[in-house]
Design brief:
It is built from 14 helices and 8 strands. Strand 2, helix 2 and strand 3 form a beta-alpha-beta unit. The chain is globular. By secondary structure, it is of the alpha/beta class. It has one domain: TIM Barrel. Helix 4 runs parallel beside helix 6.
Length: about 350
């Protein structure tokens, strides 16, 4: 048993309030319908590398979690990883994995004005090799620079061949633009993610070195609008989970725009009325995803969030939730919506020929 700290010595990092609410707690072992996890990682990203563990162990976990297929986005880091994961996962269990390719931004300086066409050809080669989608990471818009050293905007017209090639190949583009809005604010007493940023100061994008969050989202919208034949999946609730009004407007105006819920049930679950309305209004445009490396406990928290009306529970497995000191409320979605979000939407978008 731990001893209590005097109040004048208590630090925020040591604060561990224990709720006294007496509310229902629903334990869901498996989801109500089969699941496709459209946004996940099997490599080193989260320190739980599955590409160094036996494949049967991973398949057993996915079976226990009720996950029929998993989208592995790590190929977006480079073709070496793409090839390794295609050989290790896709070749061994093709019906269980969908591996995404990526863009090597470092080659822009090499290829100059022809970079867009070069990257499009590399994407075509990746698809021939077995890639089934394109993953764009958040350095695009924040750090990627052209050969002149200028920060490339998200809607840079020189990159149009990449998005046009994705449309031609009929593969989706999962794209992560910016990050939580608080990461663009000063790291001070008003920042709701102060503990997260204190632990990872390099996650902060505050200051003149970076575009504003709003500027990035405006560029993002212009990209979506400029390529209506390309299927874009906005990662992390369209990259703006804090503003579901904005997300709803994007889904209304751009039929080629979809969202996944990866790593954002913490945001969705603290605005359950707005979140539930979004799911009910756009049941065909939302994809289940976790972005945490396959983890049985995490999957069950997601299922509880989507399926139950439970109140005020943690959105992750830590004693203090990682993304902010709040708890979430379940959405209690109807079965027809659940089936689409869990499985049918991803099957239609990720595998259009199935």
């Amino acid at each position: 048993m731990t001893s209590s700290l005097p109040i004048d010595q208590l630090r925020l990092i040591d604060y561990r309030p224990r709720p006294k609410l007496v509310v229902p707690e629903t334990h869901i072992e498996k989801p109500r319908f089969p699941v496709i996890d459209a946004h996940n990682h099997l490599g080193e990203l989260f320190g739980r590398s599955w590409d160094r563990r036996p494949l049967p162990e991973l398949l057993d976990l996915l079976d226990e979690a009720g996950v029929q297929m998993l989208g592995d986005l790590d190929g977006g880091w480079g073709e070496e990883i793409l090839h390794r994961h295609l050989d290790q996962f896709k070749a061994a269990a093709p019906e269980r994995f969908q591996v995404f390719g990526g863009v090597d931004w470092s080659q822009w300086e090499v290829h100059g004005d022809g970079f867009g066409e070069w990257a499009a050809k590399r994407l075509e080669a990746q698809v021939r090799r077995g890639a089934q989608g394109l993953k764009i990471w958040k350095p695009f818009g924040l750090q990627v620079r052209d050969p002149a050293g200028r920060l490339a905007p998200i809607d840079d017209t020189r990159l149009a061949p990449i998005w046009e090639k994705a449309s031609e190949l009929r593969i989706p583009v999962i794209i992560h633009i910016a990050d939580p809005v608080a990461f663009f604010d000063p790291i001070d007493q008003y920042n709701e993610r102060i503990e997260e940023l204190a632990a990872h100061p390099d996650w902060s994008f505050y200051g003149p070195r970076f575009p504003s969050f709003q500027a990035l989202m405006e560029q993002f919208e212009r990209l979506i609008a400029s390529h209506p034949a390309t299927t874009f999946i906005g990662a992390h609730v369209g990259c703006y989970a804090e503003n579901l009004g904005w997300v709803s407007r994007m889904l209304t105006h751009y039929p080629n725009f979809y969202i996944d819920i990866s790593a954002r049930i913490g945001e969705l679950g603290r605005q359950p009325y707005s979140a539930r309305r979004l799911f009910l209004q756009f049941p065909d445009r939302i994809l289940f995803a976790t972005d945490t490396a396959p983890d049985l406990d995490i999957y069950r928290i997601y299922y509880r969030f989507l399926e139950t009306g439970d109140e005020y529970f943690s959105y992750d497995t830590g004693e203090v939730p990682a993304q902010g000191r709040w708890r979430i409320y379940g959405l209690h979605l109807p079965d027809d919506v659940l089936e689409k979000v869990y499985y049918l939407n991803a099957r239609r978008i990720l595998q259009p020929d199935s």
